[in-house]
C-alpha cells in the first residue's frame, strides 16, 4: 500500500466517524451553538476539527476532536463561557471568503450557487470538505516529501447527475503560482486513490447513490481578488489554464462578497 493510499484511507475513516451516531448525537444536543457559530466538523488525515464559518470567527475553532466525549466537553465549555472563540486580530480575507462559501453550502444542503454562477458551465457545484493536506513524494531517488493541500474539495454535477471531483485554491493575492498548486494536487493520484476520493465524497455528502463521469480528468478552480485591470499576460495564461488544464479562475470582491469570472482582454 502506498503512503498516499494509507493517508486517504485514514481520511475516509475520520469522515465516517464525523457521520457516526457518536458525533451526530452531540451535534443535535448543541444545535444552537452549531447554528450560532456556523460550526462544522472537518475530518483530516490525522484527526477531526470543530471549525466555525461565522463571519466574525472565520475558520477558527478547536482541533483534536478525537471522540464524541471530547466534542461534547468542548461545546459545554464554550456554552458556559469557560472557553471562547475570539475574532482574529487582523483581517483574514482568504479565510473569510472560505468561510463565506462553506456557510453558503451549509445553508443550502451542500450546494454553492455563488461558484455555479461565476463559473457558469451548466453544472451544479457541491462542497465536500476543506483544508485537506496530504504528504507524498515522487519516485526520484533522494526526492523530498511533497505536501499538497486542497483549500476546498468540491464536486460538480451535470444535468444527469454525473459528477467529478474539483479542487479549489483560495488566495488573498493574485499569483498564477496558485494555478500550479491546483495542478500539483492531482499529480500523484492513481486509480486507487480516485476510488478513495469518491468514497470520501459519498460519505461526506450522503444522499442517494452518485454516478461518476467516466474518464473524467482532474478539474480545478482558483479564487483570488478582483483586479481593475488584469495584465494581458495574466489573461492569456488564465485562458490557457482553462482550455488546456480545466482550471477556471474567478474573482472575489468584498466585504459583502460576490464572485465573478476573471475578465478576458
Describe this structure in words.
This protein is globular. α1 runs parallel beside α8 (191-205) and α2 (21-29) packs parallel to α4 (68-80). The protein has nine helices and ten strands. Strands 4, 5, 6, 7, 8, 9 and 10 form a seven-stranded mixed β-sheet that branches. A three-stranded antiparallel β-sheet has the order 1-2-3. The protein folds into two domains: 3-80, no CATH class; 93-261, no CATH class. Helix content is 40%, strand content 25%. It has 265 residues and is α/β, with parallel strands linked by helices. The protein has helices at residues 3-18, 21-29, 31-37, 68-80, 93-107, 113-119, 177-186, 191-205, 232-245; strands at 39-43, 48-52, 61-62, 124-136, 146-157, 162-170, 211-212, 219-225, 247-253, 258-261. A hairpin with a 4-residue loop joins β9 (247-253) and β10 (258-261).
Structural class: alpha/beta
User: Averaging pLDDT over every residue, what do you get?
Assistant: 90
Q: What is the number of helical segments per DSSP (H or I, 4+ residues)?
A: 9
Helix share bin? 40-55%
The total number of structural domains is 2
Biggest beta-sheet profile: 7 strands, mixed
Low-confidence stretches: none
- The overall strand count is 10
Backbone CA Rg: 19 Å
What would the principal axes of the Cα set say about the shape?
globular
Question: In percent, how much strand structure appears in the residues?
Answer: 15-25%
Strand and helix order: HHHEEEHHHEEEHHEEHEE
User: How far do the termini sit from each other?
Assistant: 48 Å
